[in-house]
Design brief:
2 domains, 48% helix, 3-hydroxybutyrate dehydrogenase, single chain, seven-stranded parallel β-sheet, EC 1.1.1.30, alpha/beta, Rossmann fold
């Protein structure tokens, strides 16, 4: 894995929503730089185990898996406790778990709103409230919330997602202020469109919502917002992540970093 490198040897990280897509890319980047990683997310049990073993084999670190449901505060508490029990410490928390549905606000089911806000925002609160005491005791910690360009700007048909991601940035700023003197930082990364499994499903949903083809969604809806006209690559996110979790990132705190080809500059 190319790009920025930093020595995370012996550190322990938990990454929610890390069995595929952005979360898995972030977990692999941390492991490639020496961190032991706790994976979390959905998927086929056999495939998840293959992924876990491959990280251990490829990078020579410890990798574990906890299938905590991000809708369940008790399971989230157990995820953090399991990470500390497994690795004896918790240095890095990456809040990445997320879901998305696309629909006009008057057609969005209340239960869908509740699930999107719970997984994208409320789960970040639960992981953070349990991780911070561990980090305070150690005198150091790094929290990175994966928000979205939609945490900075809005798009139609995404009311719950946009609201939740704006909330993630507010939570990030507040936590950063609270932990600033404890050697802990809290920041947010705001990606534009990355061609993940989540985005693939958005393409189909958006095509239906707007009554256009999937090709038109990619060209005229998604990438029209990104001046580069290209999807964001995983490496563009992992480079920033490694800076934020490193000692060099100690003064980066309470910020939301856009990685979206200039989308929010317009």
């Amino acid at each position: 894995m190319g790009g920025l490198r930093t020595d995370l040897s012996g550190q322990a990280a938990v990454i929610t929503g890390s069995t595929s897509g952005i979360g898995l890319a972030l977990a692999r980047a941390l492991a490639a730089n020496g961190a032991n990683v706790m994976l979390n997310g959905l998927g086929d049990a056999g495939e998840i185990e293959k992924t876990r073993k491959s990280i251990e084999t490829e990078f020579g670190v410890k990798a574990a898996y906890n299938g905590a449901n991000m809708l369940d505060s008790g399971e989230i508490e157990s995820l953090i406790a399991d990470t500390v029990k497994t690795f004896g410490r918790l240095d890095i928390l990456i809040n990445n778990a997320g879901i998305q549905r696309v629909a006009p606000v008057e057609e969005l089911a209340p239960e869908t709103w509740d699930a999107i806000v719970a997984i994208n925002l409320t789960s970040c609160f639960h992981t953070t409230r349990h991780a911070v005491p561990v980090m305070r005791k150690a005198g150091r910690g790094r929290i990175v919330n994966i928000a979205s360009a939609h945490g900075l700007v809005a798009s139609p048909f995404k009311s719950a997602y946009v609201a939740a991601k704006h909330g993630v940035i507010g939570l990030t700023k507040t936590v950063a202020l609270e932990v600033a003197e404890a050697g802990i930082t809290c920041n947010a990364i705001c990606p534009g469109y990355v061609r993940t499994p989540l985005v693939e499903s958005q393409i189909a949903d958006t095509a239906k919502a707007r009554g256009i083809s999937e090709e038109e969604v990619v060209r005229d809806v998604m990438l029209s917002a990104q001046p580069t006209k290209k999807f964001v690559e995983y490496d563009h996110l992992t480079g920033l992540l490694l800076y934020l979790v490193s000692d060099s990132g100690a003064s980066a705190n309470g910020a939301a970093y856009p990685v979206e080809g200039g989308w929010v500059a317009a």
